[in-house]
Each structure stands twice: as structure tokens, then as C-alpha cells.
Amino acid sequence: MSNQEDRLKTLIGHAKEYGFVFQSSEIYDGLSATYDYGPYGAELKNNIRQYWWAAMTKLNENIVGIDAAIFMHPTVWKASGHVDAFNDPLIDNKDSKKRYRADVLLEEHMAKYQDKIEKETDKAKKKFGDAFNEEQFRATNPNVLRAQERINGVEGRMKTALEANDLVGLRQLIIDEEIKCPISGTANWTEVRQFNLMFATELGSVSGESSTIYLRPETAQGIFVNFLNVQKSARMKIPFGIAQTGKAFRNEIVARQFIFRMREFEQMEMQFFIKPGTQQEWYEHWKTKRIAWHRALGLPADNYRFHDHIKLAHYADAACDIEFRFPMGFKELEGIHSRTDFDLGNHEKFSGKKLRYFDTETNESYVPYVLETSIGLDRMFLAILSAAYEEEKLENGEERVVLRIPAALAPVKVAVLPLIKKDGLPEKARAIIDGLKLSHNCQYDDKDSIGKRYRRQDAIGTPYCITIDHETLNDDAVTIRERDSMKQERVKISEVERIVGQKVDMKKLLRQL
């Protein structure tokens, strides 16, 4: 088993043991690619959502939010192109009977060559130290150039095949590259077929009278069909955005890698309506804004990279992903897309209703262009969990597992721990919690030794622990312990609320944006 698989397994085990994520319907042996969020998972998820929502709607006067229904008129999905074109190219291995996405097999194949490039570069970096010129090395090293040539060749052929919907060409590329099934180790592949990802259901109680509707595969369409409602009721002027978070559903045939790819997941999307012709500057603007949102969390900067799309959707004139270094390697975390006037134009055509904006300054009416930012909440959750998880060896030889979750997002902000369960210490601890719980999610714990209690809080990512001891009764002071450094400081009880508030307040993140 690879280190990556090991790390993912470790994360899955930790997430279950400490109440972050459970397999859905586990007592019935589970339902694949669906997960439930436990007590700490639900809190972390809420905090990520709140950080995104505040960054969008509080910090931008020209962005407002909505909450659209999951069920929509079926023609919405004709207009959006999902009924005809929302397909994945799938291929089966005849020996293992396992099914794969053809494009993902090729992307993973290219990633192996990219890994070779990174290893060669790291090796040279260590060898030459400060004298190392990375740009020159990548441009001249024969091994790097060979690997890059292979990537470019596969990428070029894949792009051509995907754009032409050439499924035979896609299969041929897999065979030419000698890509084997990771389970059977053979290249005994079926033809590539297209598979629509939408879940269909029926509206209406009597069979025959019902009509087919779909569980939404994305949240964006709820924004587009409400464009005029929002623009008029909230008196918005272009450029303006509409933000939404909510569940989406995709019948993923190849769903794996824990909560990275699920059949029921949550999106955080913002559609920004702009004047045609200004899309390039807004595209660059939102790329900068969105990477700043990620970087403010303080996770390692080399965990992020931009990746331009190999195949542009037929409606897009620019598209890239912010990729994150998950335990499975670099994968898409957020998409930034310039969608032109495809969405509103198509809904205008299919609905017969005008979806135009009248610009009072220029006296012209037009269908706005759209710039989209779209991030998976579950993927963001996994990104934070995987970057935060650390097995640390301490100076005294002990080990601890710690989740270094950014303090503002931590499920529990502060734990209050009476040293022993008597002598008035629990009462004092309860009084402190009563002062803190109006502002923060707190936890009271008086079981086991203080060391074990610290370890439990480290494992769920609690940034601060407050210990009440016998001295507290005399000097009205407590010990605050910080999770990451494990440093302890004696402070007055009257100062606790201010100190904790400063350290865990989400405003600290928002001020960086």
C-alpha cells in the first residue's frame, strides 16, 4: 500500500473515531459514496460554510445570497444542457469488472509523469542548494523534458478526443499508453461509453400522470433562473453576484476516495453577472480573490496550484481549477469559469421570457455574461482535515495526534477542564463556560488525567484549553494552553473571554481578504 493510501486510510479512521464523518447507513453495511457528518464534522462544515458565506456576502456589497429549491422544472435541465450532455466517459476492465472514468485514468497516468518531474527537481534542489536554478533545470534536464513531452502528448490527444466526443480515440489512447487496471493489472478494456449523471425521479402521486424531474446536479441553475427576481428585488446593478450553498446530486458510477467524490454533496457557488467584454478582467479578479480566501487559512502554500482546463466546456471562454494536494495527490478543489452568456441566453430561449439587464448609464439592454466560482464544501472539509492532521513526536518521547485546524474553523473553540472533580473546581469551570458559550462552542471535560484530556482535545482540533486548579480559588486566574505550541499561560478569569475571542474570531480571517 502506498503512503498516499495509508494516509487516506488513517484520516478515514480518525474521522470516524472522533466523530467527524461516518459511513451512511453503516448498521446496514453502508451505502457507497454517501457519508454522514458527526458532531465535530457538522460543526467544522458549518464553520467552513460560514467563512465562505461571510467572505462573499458580507465583504462584497454587490453580492447577495439565495436558497433555491432542489427540485426544479424539468426544462431547466434541457436549457442548461444537462439532459443531453451531462455525461462521463466510462470504461470497464473485463478482468476486474471494475469501472473507471476514461478521462480520470488518463489524468492519473499523466500525474505519474508529473511526479517524476517533481522528484527529479527535488533531487537536484538538494544537490545544488542555493545555487539551484529551478526554471533553467526544468527547461534543460533531459529526464524532465522527456516526462513533460509524454504529458504534452497525452494531454493533446485527450483534448482532441474529448472535444470531438471521440470515444474510440479515447480508448485507443488508453491502450497506446499501456494503462492497466490498478486491481487486475491488465489492459483488457471494454469500449468507452457515455453515462448521464443525473438522478431522475417522478413528480406526482399517480403513475402515468407524473412527470420526470431531476435531483439538481449543481446549484448554479437555481441562481440563473432567479436572476431577474434577485436583480429587481435587491435593486442590484451590474456587476453583481448571487451566492448560494446547498446540496447537489450526481449518480457517480466511479465514486471513491472518501468524501472527495460523493453522490450527494454540497456546493458553495457564486455567479457574478457582468457586462459582455469585461469577462477577462473579472476572471483574473476572481482567481486572485479566491486563492486569497484559501491562503488566509494558513495551510501550506505549496498545497495549492492553478490548473487550466484541458477541455473547455462548450459555453466557456476560460476555465481553471484551484487544485489542492489531497492525500491522493493534486485534485480539483474549486473551479473558476467564464461562462459567457450561455446560461441566461439558453434560459431566455427555452422559457420565452426576457432575461436581460437594462443599463441606465449606457441606455442599452443585454444578456449579461457570467463569471462563476464553485467550490465543493465536502472537498474543502477534506482539504482542511488532511492538511491539519499530524502525528507529532514530543520532546519527552511521547507521541500525540493533533488536528491543526485553523482556529476560527475549529469545531470546538475552547475546552474547560477542572483539575479534579471536587473542592469547588467543577462549579468554577461551569461558571467560566457560562460566560464563553454565548460566543463560542465550548466543551466541559472532567474525566481522566489532565494529560489525557489535552490529547483528546488535540485530536479534535480544539485550539485552547482552560484548566481550573486549586490556585484559581485564591487568585481568580486559570491556565490557558495553546494547541499547536502546547504553551501554557496563567491569565485572570476576567480576561479569558477577550483572549479566547481574539484568538478564534472569524474576523481574523476576513480581515486578510
Helix/strand layout:
Elements: H1 3-17, E1 21-23, E2 35-37, H2 39-58, E3 63-65, H3 74-79, H4 82-85, E4 87-92, E5 99-101, H5 102-128, H6 134-140, H7 142-163, H8 167-176, E6 193-196, E7 200-203, E8 211-214, H9 220-225, H10 227-233, E9 240-249, E10 264-274, H11 279-295, E11 304-308, E12 318-326, E13 329-340, H12 342-351, E14 357-359, E15 364-366, E16 369-376, H13 377-388, E17 389-393, E18 399-403, E19 414-418, H14 425-436, E20 442-444, H15 450-460, E21 464-468, H16 470-475, E22 477-482, E23 488-492, H17 493-504, H18 507-510
Parallel strand pairs: 3-9, 19-20, 19-21
Antiparallel strand pairs: 1-2, 4-5, 4-6, 7-8, 9-10, 10-16, 11-12, 12-13, 13-16, 14-15, 17-18, 21-22, 22-23
Helix pairs in contact: 2-13, 5-7, 5-8, 7-8
Folded structure, characterized:
With 513 residues, this protein is of the alpha+beta class. It has three domains: 1-71 and 197-393, 2-Layer Sandwich (BirA Bifunctional Protein, domain 2), CATH 3.30.930.10; 87-196, 2-Layer Sandwich (Herpes Virus-1), CATH 3.30.40; 397-510, Anticodon-binding domain (Rossmann fold), CATH 3.40.50.800. Helices cover 41% and strands 24% of the residues. The chain has 18 helices and 23 strands. The protein has a seven-stranded mixed sheet with strand order 3-9-10-16-13-12-11. Strands 20-19-21-22-23 form a five-stranded mixed sheet, with helices on both faces. It has a three-stranded antiparallel sheet with strand order 5-4-6. It starts with a helix and ends with a helix. The mean pLDDT is 92.
